[in-house]
Structures
1.
Amino acid sequence: MIEWALAACVALVAAAGLYLASSRDLVAMIVGLALLGSAVNLFVFAAGRLGQAVPPIVEAGAAGAAVANPVPQALVLTAIVIGFAFACFGIALALALAAYDHRADADALEQAEPPPRPDGDPGELP
Amino acid sequence: MSSLLIATPVLVPLFTAALTVALARRPRRQRAASAAGALLLLLCCAALLHDAIGGAVTTARFGEWAAPFAIVFRIDRAAALMLTVNAVLALAVLAYPGRGGALATPFGPPLAHGLLAGAGGAYATADLFNLYVWFEIMLIAALGLIVAGRKPAQLEAGLKYLVLNLFGTVVLLAAVAGLYGLTGQLNYEALARALAGRGKDPLALLLGALLLLALLIKAGAFPFLFWLPAAYPVLPAPVQALFTALSTKVGAYALLRVLHDVFPAGAPAYSEALGWIAAATMVAGVMGAVYHYDLRRILAFHSVSQMGYILLAAALGGVAGIAAALFFSIHHILVKANLYLIAGMIARRGGHHDLRRIGALAHSDRALAILFALSAAALVGIPPLSGFWAKLLVLREGFGQERYLWTALALCTGALTLLSMAKIWIEAFWKPHPAAPAVQAAYPPGAWAACGLLSLLALAMGLMPGPLIDFLYAAAGTMAAPPAGGAP
């Protein structure tokens, strides 16, 4: 039951993330990627299996009851921190671009790759 | 002691990065510290290579955890050689004066060493999640270098680089998590054992394909190549040279590792698709290079095209294929980085990067013309230069496996490479200057030192390929047949 609920959650968040990431608005694009990252984080967490178990702190020598798998928890913490840093950097970058030309639009990004001239020759970079 | 040495490809650049941050307000000392760090890194990598030459595989388990649980660094012949090539390149790039470029700002040296640390970790690690972390470190350092100049074009390039590569790392993380959920392992050796019998298991194949997809995005392969020609052309020459070694090649190397070290059972299932992707990458890249007139854009599209050869060798597989991919990577790192640096010198002398605005350099700059001609001929693959042997190794294996169509496409790509290099030669060096040339800046000795060092190395590789090819065949042998027993 809980597995299906989590799977649905991952699918929903990933779908929302992909939808936003394919947007033309730069900030929405970055937020979408961050959402996609969150969906993957949930997936990482689920890779350690779901279920009721005691925390993985075991006395020395005590052979175990069902303990939770600590590895995915460590992995997901790392991934959350990295993903958050990238989301912050990306939003700052998108805002800096928006401040430059006052429209945070993916179609307006023609500085780094100037379009061809009217006669078909390649455009000129500064 | 050996576990300290094996960690130096990460520790030395990280320590140097911290030191250069502390010296950010003293540019001269910062540059000195940065150069000293690169030199120390080269010495450590050379020591690792010396240990690895006989075939010894150095491993270190951090935290003294038992075999499959610890994060493992493992350096064999291939990893040691690639690390050494990177260190040589870093030294050359830091010697090249980056006036007005990202490396000249206080942010430059720490970020460059951060990039080196990420690449060092990616080469040294034998743990899938750890690989993901090193890729993220490389990504954030690379982004810092891209946007450090703060020009609008660079911010835009940074955004494109960020979006496509971030998607790649998200896919990488998903694949790592899926493989962990399937096998309960992250260590390469343990994963290889757990996946050994699963060459036909659809779930394992799907997760493996997801992993390869992520690494193909990192390597700039055909439909995912667009971050590369968007980002490289707006960067200063030394940063381009650094990136050519430290971004796509690391992706290709990780792909080789995954195909032949982690999931060899699945490799036959992927080779067909990978071969076609490689062929498309070669052709798409070289088409862009033929069309464009800006030196930096031509070279960026060439970088894509040459990644196609490396991926083709990886797809062909086997000991010969792996050796060819490694030889091609080393050749391309040396020659292509040199071409980016030479393009920087051409632009400084001619006044512009666009070929339509410069000319007549063959009369005013004979030494530069010779340097460029040598590197361009090596890239095209004119015997006896390094590119000839690199392409020969790939093509011979392609013929050997009766992949005639892929081989024919590779040959056509070679002809178009010649065309676009001849275009640069004619436009920049032979044709008369379209306008009265502006006052030309002379270039400092550091530029000559960097280009001369790289040219000599590439020349040596072309004139005496035998020892290197023998060494790479031995390295490929260890990679294709990882030790089946327990971890040492």
2.
Amino acid sequence: MSLHEADSIVPFDVLYGTHHGWLNGWLRRSVGCSQQAADLAQDTFVRLLVRNQPVTDRAPRALLARIARGLVIDHWRRDALERAYLEALAQLPEASHPSPEVRHEALQCLERIAQMLDGLKPAVREAFLLYQLGGLTHVQVAAQLGVSSRTVERHVATALLHCYRLCFETPA
Amino acid sequence: MSQASERVPESIVRDAIDWQMRLRGHPELQAPFHDWLRRDPRHQLAWQRLQQMAGMFQASQLPRAEQTIPLLKRASADLSRRRMLKMLGLVAGGTALAAVSAPPSWHADYITALGERRQIDLGNGTRVLINGDSSVDVQGGELLLRSGEVLVDGPRWHARCRFAECSGRDARVSLRERDGFSEIRVDRGEVLVTSPVGQRRLHAGEGLGVSAAAMTPLGKSPLDPFAWSRGLLVVNDIRLGEFVAEAGRYRHGWLGCDERIADLRLSGVFRLDEPASLLDNISHLLPVKVVERTRWWVRIVPA
């Protein structure tokens, strides 16, 4: 990556010292909880460190906000999944509740799936989930959703290709 | 994995996807499929990768599909609603929408199970009836519909749904989250509906659909939007496809309708707390039959 001549590189400690307070406030307004905001602010700077690319003095806050926004969405997603998972468990008899370890793994698994399906249209997601999780054929999915099997085929193929690209063609 | 980063041409990935879909339910295609697989190592790589992906969805820790699918759906609706609120907060800036952009801190949660109905009190004489499979937050006397459907009835109340804010005066109103829009129907009184795309005043008998992009007046629904509060499903000349989708909201598992009969019309009054007899009834009223593939996979097909 070539740097513009006029841009100067900001050392990490200066970046932290100058913008940490601002980022904290920004996150507190987003998530409405100061403890979570503090954790997310910390995570944001960790991401920046791990990224290991120099930060210039051109709009450092925009960069921080972009990283933080991604983390906030991850946080919300995890939160939403956890609620939905607990709701689902609440409908089962207590005797069949899984152990805390299994719950933890299930949530991580759900998170990976939800993350992967993020950005797909609701109709595409629904057809794909019935196909992939429900194990139905595309003809059965079509009957289930009351749409043509051609549409389901297209939806499922779109979703599979989307997941494939995310898993195998996105640079780490 | 040495092949981990190898890029397979998209046409091959698409072929592999095509094979995966065709093979399901068609074991006779195994031979031509294996011919295809042997023809090129890249075919094998694409296939392996698809199997690897499929593995992610079959993890043993996951709840059964009939729980996991609605769960993912609910979480995704929740996430997009939060993103939406965030976006409104960034875009609106004005005072009218200040309430929407305020940081959501979720004080109270009411979550109803499928088929359950629950009443809560917002104070100052406002009652909220929550339909099954719905979730609601209450924040400082204000209602926040997160998913599903509620009926709000009171002298003066304020409620938010995914795409709009509603202020009611002596109003009895149903709010329902649909796919991509919020549906607001007024039974009695007057409601002011505000969203980033505009503002409307609704009166008794009127309905409005609010999406991210538009406000659309809704005509009379073939489905009585308030009947569920009395435990009834009241329909008038409704498409069977729509009826089945509606009935599916009150029972576990998947309820599907064959396309060939989806346009048949149906009128009647059905009891929601007897979902089994609800299905029996339609097979008496229309030339259809109910096929139970598994406990949770039920289809309505031509008789």
